[in-house]
């Protein structure tokens, strides 16, 4: 579900740090490259326009100005070209300060991006409603793709649907769904999360056509601790009424290897089958 927020600023310079952290690695690398080239082109232009400000730079050579800017921004200073006028010294001083500040910022961003944990949790593409222990239950499958188990995992399911209030207007209501278990000390591989549809459940008595009529949506969230870093990680998923399969169940993905080993087939994580199939 995408929200289009009106009458609020779309961009805020204070959110630049957060925006940079949300970029994918190729996007982040592309952004750094563009900024790097833009800064060097800017200072190269200043050197080019300041005729004779850099000693040993060939007249009207933008290439020399550009590569001198690259060397100055990195504070390398090979020594062949150097500032020859006050103008040249001022521009190189500004570029060196820009390079030092930029290097510190980029280093910090890269460190945060590398140190930030990723959940690597996969949700099943659909939900199923099928009998479990003599009662109908809404089920969702989740899997931890990491080889190390997550600790102190907490699970949440929220039901959202349209209802009519007594005044006759439509209203969007939120219902927390009570789970058979909503937390585990250890989350090693794959789990099936279940909400039993009893008389107290907001799903009680609803049929498949009722889900579409009330535009049922379900939000799922998992919060757990990565034991390697350690740090808290979070992942979420949202489902619509189209993603709820009534009268089906998830296929079995566990099989015994020996008395101490169990195989988990992640390739069948999303597969469902007819009840009794």
CATH homologous superfamily assignment of the largest domain: G protein-activated inward rectifier potassium channel 1
CATH uppermost class of the largest domain? Mainly Beta
Q: Could you name the ranges where pLDDT drops below 50 across 5 or more consecutive residues?
A: none
| Count of alpha/pi helices | 5
Computed CA radius of gyration, to the nearest angstrom: 29 Å
Structural class, by secondary structure, is alpha+beta
Helix content: 25-40%
As for the CATH topology of the largest domain, it is Immunoglobulin-like
Indicate the mean pLDDT: 91
Number of extended strands = 16
Overall tally of structural domains: 2
**CA distance, first residue to last residue:** 34 Å
- Largest sheet properties: 5 strands, mixed
Coarse morphology: elongated
Q: Secondary-structure element order, as H and E?
A: HHEHEHEEEEEEEHEEEEEEE
- The appropriate CATH architecture of the largest domain is Sandwich
User: β content, as a range?
Assistant: 25-35%
